[in-house]
Each structure stands twice: as C-alpha cells, then as structure tokens.
Design brief:
By secondary structure, the protein is of the alpha/beta class. 32% of the residues lie in helices and 20% in strands. The longest helix has 17 residues, at 91-107.
Length: 214
C-alpha cells in the first residue's frame, strides 16, 4: 500500500487562544512549536506545511501574543506558541504570555511533542536553556531544529550539529536534533516525516517514546 499523505499536506487554521480556558478540546494529538522571537519559527511552519503565509512572519519580536491552533486534516494539530525572549514589550504582557504558554505546556494532555527552534548561529541562549530545563519533565518527545542553517558554511553546520547533540545528551534530554532552513530546504522533508511518525504513534496510544539508554 502507498504511504499515506503527510498530515501537513492538509492544514487549516482552527483558533487563537489568549487564555488557557479558550483552548480547543483535547481530542487530537498536538505538536507545539516554540522558539525565541524572530528565530524563524513562522518560516519553519510555513515550510513544513508548504504554505507561504500560514504562520505570519514578522520582523517585530513578540508580535504573536496568542496560542494559534491549526488542524492537520483531522489527524492532529499544529500549535504555534508565542515567541519567548522578547525584550521590547511591557513586563506585564510578558508575564501574561509566560502564564499562557506555561499553562498549556504543563497541563495539556493532548501534547504529543514539542519542537524547539534555535538559531543555528547562536544556539542555547539563556532563554533557550530556560525553556529546555522547563520542558524536561513535560515531554520526552522533543525535537530541536537549528534554524537558518543556510547562513553557515558546511563545516560550521557540521560543528554546530555535533555540539548541539552532545550538549543535549549531556543534559539528559531525550531529544532529536536537526539542521533546518526554510530557504534552502535543509531538514524540511526529514522533519515533516518525523513529525508524521509522532502523530501516528500518539494516535495509536504510544504517547511517548522510550527514554534513551533504557
């Protein structure tokens, strides 16, 4: 039998939620995308879904203030989380966003995996480290995408990938790490296939993969 089409081939906007009480029902597995403001998260979502403006690409850090849900052909949901690490918004707004995202990640039973984007040129900032530490007890299914890899030479890409894998392994994170570029296409197909696998596993009741080393 032919392989089923990717869940990312049929995607539609579902709802934006500004409070945890406005989230949709937990009846489908969800893949959450997180990353520092302006790290290329929206561009990555657009590349994975083969849509030009599904997720709005902004040059203004902190523009996205809600959790945006997209239906993946009834097989799951893509969840676009507000960017973190924003410095040009009021403290009260930042606190509200942190509460919203924290409430989602900490209590969402439908969460099947988290995709964290880091700029391949400047990975593991203090904000990135904070999020990874916060995610440690939340999910074992974690993917780190080193975005904007097209900005690096081949040697630099090899080095940053190796360093990232070692760093995550040293921190006991059960994480996949990939180089990713929405411009060159590096890592796009491989990432789409991996996330399809995650959705299929979650749909069959396999909520989390075994912890590495066990």
């Amino acid at each position: 039998m032919p392989e089923p089409a990717s869940a990312f081939s049929k995607v539609e906007f579902l709802v934006s939620a500004g409070v945890t009480g406005g989230l949709p029902p937990e009846d489908l597995p969800e893949l959450a995308f997180a990353g520092r403001s302006n790290v290329g998260k929206s561009s990555a979502i657009n590349a994975l879904t083969r849509r030009k403006r599904l997720a709005f690409v902004s040059k203004t850090p902190g523009r996205t203030q809600t959790i945006n849900f997209f239906d993946l052909g009834g097989r799951g949901r893509l969840v676009d989380l507000p960017g973190y690490g924003y410095a040009r918004v009021p403290q009260a707004v930042r606190a509200q966003w942190d509460q919203l995202v924290g409430g989602y990640l900490g209590a969402r039973r439908a969460l099947a995996g988290v995709v964290v984007l880091m700029d391949a040129r400047h990975p593991f900032t203090a904000h990135d480290e904070y999020l990874l530490e916060w995610l440690r007890p939340v999910t074992q299914r974690l993917l780190v995408l080193l975005s904007k890899s097209d900005k690096l030479s081949r040697q630099e890409r090899t080095k940053v990938l190796s360093t990232a894998r070692a760093r995550l392994a040293g921190g006991a994170h059960n994480a996949e790490v990939r180089l990713f570029s929405s411009l060159s296409g590096e890592g796009v197909e491989e990432t789409r296939e991996l996330l399809d696998d995650w959705l299929r596993a979650a749909g069959t009741g396999d909520k989390k993969p075994p912890v590495k080393g066990n």
